[in-house]
């Protein structure tokens, strides 16, 4: 049923945001720390697990893929409800500060990309066997593959299945 | 007749927003295909149209929510608000392989710390160049350049004036707008075409709305990777700005 997918998504979001709040409190920050990221990881694991157990029929999946497809329209609505006028009120200093920050951060992307690749190349091998999630991780990768994902060199290409 | 139509649109505001955004997307994709021959992605045009509408909405009403402050378009605020946005971002993670995330994990964490630091330093440097000298103002503007949520958090905890906090919010807003607009243009030059660089990108930029929109306009497949790291950024910034970074600024100035 469609609602099962929506409910799974909603459950992950609620637990993730709650965990992010708790994490923020523990760190003494007045902010949610990675709540959405935690929820995404939960959905990856739970979704992968249920897929392996054949508990994700297409109707259930469509409850998640619908919201996935609504993503760009929602972002457009978000853009239309930003406080753009206030940003312009901030004037030159706000514009310059953010422009410098953005350009510097852009410039760092290729640098970090190269840097990380070397250090990560030695990482995964010793890490893979002992971690517990590895059990559910491997089959979920297989499941994703069998459902039409690009099989590819791990670090290069986008591997979400095309819908 | 017209009045009752307006009343209905105001009453069914979320549904009206669906229709409005759908129409905006249709026109944007049409412009993308006919006028730019697909060179500028339709979603990039739609996002810029959204920002332009938000600007005029803000000027028109003097409110803080762009076009959503006009009661006719109030549904946009709900549709593009935090709740549905987060739900949709999380939904993009479905079907992602954990392996991809683990492989970029360490670079993602490095990117997070470096991203907060670089934005903060950029903000402090520009504020200094504009004549600010006291550590509280410098830190608050630097924190605002991290994201528009970190600015007020840091400013409130170290006692900045409300004008400085407003300025820091403006810097953060500009950052998210610039990331939305510049990402699709810069993507090719910075190698933003795979999950790994998307995670690094999300960690460096941090503004969830900017990263989410920028990647959506570049390649929607990359959205979950960038969004994943970006959501840790604001928390990290809120942690570092009023503490370590403030102490650092105080030591220097």
TrEMBL record, chain A:
The chain crosses the membrane at residues 7-27, 33-51, 63-80, 92-112. Keywords: Membrane, Transmembrane, Transmembrane helix. Residues 118-163 are annotated as: Disordered. It comes from the Bacteria. The keyword RNA-binding does not apply. InterPro entries: Maln_transptMadL. This is Malonate transporter subunit MadL. It comes from Halomonas dongshanensis. The gene is madL.
From TrEMBL, chain B:
Residues 7-253 form the Malonate/sodium symporter MadM subunit N-terminal domain. Pfam families: MadM. The chain crosses the membrane at residues 12-31, 43-60, 72-96, 108-130, 164-186, 198-218, 230-249. Keywords: Membrane, Transmembrane, Transmembrane helix. InterPro entries: Mal/Na_symporter_MadM (IPR004691), Mal/Na_symporter_MadM_N (IPR018402). This is Malonate transporter subunit MadM. It comes from Halomonas dongshanensis. The gene is madM.
């Amino acid at each position: 049923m469609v609602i099962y997918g929506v409910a799974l998504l909603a459950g992950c979001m609620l637990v993730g945001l709650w965990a992010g709040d708790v994490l923020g409190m523990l760190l003494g920050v007045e902010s949610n720390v990675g709540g959405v990221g935690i929820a995404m990881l939960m959905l990856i694991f739970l979704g992968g697990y249920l897929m392996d157990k054949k508990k994700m029929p297409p109707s259930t999946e469509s409850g998640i893929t619908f919201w996935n497809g609504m993503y760009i329209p929602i972002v457009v609505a978000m853009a239309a409800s930003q406080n753009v006028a206030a940003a312009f009120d901030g004037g030159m200093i706000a514009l310059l500060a953010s422009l410098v920050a953005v350009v510097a951060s852009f410039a760092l992307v290729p640098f970090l990309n190269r840097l990380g690749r070397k250090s990560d190349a030695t990482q995964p091998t010793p890490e893979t066997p002992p971690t517990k999630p590895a059990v559910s991780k491997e089959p979920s990768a297989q499941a994703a593959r069998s459902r039409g994902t690009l099989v590819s060199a791990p670090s290069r290409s986008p591997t979400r299945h095309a819908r | 007749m017209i009045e009752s139509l307006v009343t209905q649109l105001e009453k069914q505001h979320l549904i009206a927003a669906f229709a409005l955004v759908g129409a905006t997307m249709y026109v944007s994709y049409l412009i993308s295909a006919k006028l730019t021959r697909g060179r500028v992605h339709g979603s990039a045009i739609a996002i810029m149209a959204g920002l332009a509408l938000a600007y005029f909405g803000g000027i028109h009403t003097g409110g803080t929510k762009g076009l959503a402050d006009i009661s006719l378009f109030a549904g946009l605020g709900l549709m593009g608000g935090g709740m549905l946005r987060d739900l949709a971002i999380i939904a993009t993670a479905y079907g992602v392989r954990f392996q991809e995330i683990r492989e970029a994990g360490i670079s993602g964490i490095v990117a997070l710390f470096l991203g907060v630091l670089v934005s903060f330093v950029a903000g402090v440097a520009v504020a200094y160049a504009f004549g600010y000298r006291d550590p509280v103002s410098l830190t608050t503007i630097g924190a605002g350049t991290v994201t528009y949520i970190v600015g007020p958090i840091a400013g409130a905890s170290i006692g900045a004036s409300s004008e400085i906090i407003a300025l820091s919010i403006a810097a953060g807003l500009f950052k998210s707008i610039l990331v939305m607009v510049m990402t699709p243009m810069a993507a090719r030059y910075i190698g933003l075409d795979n999950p790994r660089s998307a995670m690094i990108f999300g960690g460096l930029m941090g503004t969830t709305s900017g990263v989410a929109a920028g990647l959506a306009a570049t390649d929607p497949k990359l959205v979950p990777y960038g969004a994943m790291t970006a959501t840790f950024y604001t928390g990290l910034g809120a942690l570092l700005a009023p503490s370590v970074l403030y102490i650092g600024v105080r030591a220097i100035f």
